[in-house]
From TrEMBL:
The lineage of its organism: Eukaryota, Fungi, Dikarya, Ascomycota, Pezizomycotina. The keyword Signal applies. This is Vacuolar protein sorting-associated protein 62. It holds the Pfam family Vps62. Residues 1-24 form the signal peptide. InterPro entries: Vps62.
């Protein structure tokens, strides 16, 4: 959702050298991964018990994706030039790449290749909530009483909402999250990411699932995948004016049935493995990929290139986003932007955002 424009300056040489290093030491990497797996500390039970129960939109066309499938179909690029082959980056080598690397679609995205739309991640239509695309659950202990549990959702493609009949803000790669703050193991508040900001609510004011009264309902907007606490139309502003996201109780998605679990240490800013419930891949023994600060999609095309157009500062195609590590996991307040964070005590005003 959050397209971050950037102008990479470094050339691909450093990354080439790093790739060489990474491939030179596979056995020590495997040993490290095995050690990490053996040391995995389970997530707290409350991270699962009170996890959001989410609904994707009923006519959603861009479903949750598995990062390993995404990597398989992208090319590492710096300044629009390939520094490796399609599928050459894996979760085990990702963190050896520089932060100016864009994981660029190996296919023409206007052809809408199957991996980009990720039908495989469409939650089970029977309503069980299982998706073959694993989410991420990351627990961050803030101090003796406070633990923030982040639920990260990854999509290979963000479809932008049409404005004045034109589409804007399409991008490869889309990271969204919700975060529940637990105080002494009791849920206190929840934050929902929405475009460049988000909304925070006290726990008790949320609507809860009829399947499981412990689980707050979150709605995922069609295409943009912004998270909301209510179903209906949700307004937000871009340079061209007011745009609406739409949410409804379309496809039930239960992240606890398939996720990769991690801990984030706020004092060292490092990740370690937790036990998870992923059926999506075998590589999840390594948490190193989470430290990578590069871009999960194509770099924004110049105006006129690849069908790109821009109007009043909004472009059809924008850059892919950076990953979970850049979402202020060490936050003091419950909001991604600490400054001016407001926690709402009702769901009534659909237009308000905390930060
Ligand atoms: C939902 O998104 C899909 C594209 O992924 C689009 O085709 C469809 O028209 C959208 N529906 C609504 C109601 O916005
Ligand atoms: C990645 O691509 C390779 C080669 O095509 C394939 O064997 C492997 O199953 C793919 N992995 C994923 C996660 O898609
Ligand atoms: C993992 O998922 C399965 C099947 O959806 C579920 O029955 C099980 O309780 C889950 N285990 C954990 C540890 O969440
Ligand atoms: C974070 O890492 C430091 C240094 O290894 C360690 O002392 C501390 O206990 C860790 N914090 C948590 C919450 O595990
Ligand atoms: C624990 O951390 C939270 C979040 O950073 C903070 O608001 C709270 O004051 C801290 N409590 C203590 C006892 O340090």
């Amino acid at each position: 959702m959050v397209g971050i424009a950037s102008s990479p300056t470094r050339l691909g040489l450093a990354a080439f050298l790093l790739v060489g290093l990474a491939t030179a030491a596979p056995s020590s990497k495997r040993a490290a991964a095995a050690a990490a797996a053996a040391a995995a500390v389970p997530l707290p039970d409350y991270a699962i018990t009170y996890a959001p129960w989410s609904y994707l939109y009923s006519s959603e066309g861009t479903f949750p994706s598995d990062i390993t499938v995404h990597l398989n179909h992208t090319i590492p690029e710096v300044n629009y030039a390939a520094i490796g082959a399609a599928g050459s980056v894996t979760v085990d080598t990702l963190d050896t790449y520089a932060s100016d690397v864009y994981l660029t679609s190996a296919d023409d995205i206007s052809d809408e290749p199957a991996w980009l739309l990720s039908d495989y991640g469409m939650p089970d239509v029977g309503g069980s909530g299982y998706s073959a695309a694993p989410g991420l659950i990351i627990a961050a202990e803030k101090n003796e009483s406070v633990v923030d549990v982040f639920y990260f959702y990854f999509y290979s493609y963000n479809w932008g909402r049409p404005v004045i009949g034109l589409e804007f803000d399409l991008h490869v790669g889309d990271w969204e999250h919700s975060m529940t703050r637990f105080v002494d193991g009791v849920p206190y508040a929840i934050y929902l990411s929405e475009h460049s900001a988000g909304s925070a609510y006290y726990w008790d004011v949320m609507d809860f699932s009829t399947q499981d009264a412990n689980r707050p309902i979150t709605y995922v907007a069609n295409g943009s995948h912004a998270n909301y606490a209510t179903a209906g139309t949700q307004e937000y502003t871009i340079a061209l004016g007011i745009v609406t996201d739409v949410t409804d109780a379309g496809y039930a998605w239960d992240i606890t049935q398939n996720y990769r679990g991690y801990w984030y240490n706020t004092s060292t800013a490092t990740f370690s493995l937790a036990t998870g419930n992923s059926t999506g891949a075998t590589e999840e023994a390594s948490p190193s990929w989470l430290a990578w600060t590069g871009y999960w999609g194509d770099e924004q095309y110049a105006d006129g290139v690849e069908g790109q157009y821009c109007l009043f500062g909004e472009c059809l195609y924008t850059s892919g986003p950076t990953g979970p590590v850049t979402k202020n996991l060490g936050r003091e307040t419950v909001c991604q932007t600490d400054d001016g964070c407001v926690i709402f005590d009702d769901l009534d005003d659909l237009t308000k955002q905390s930060k």
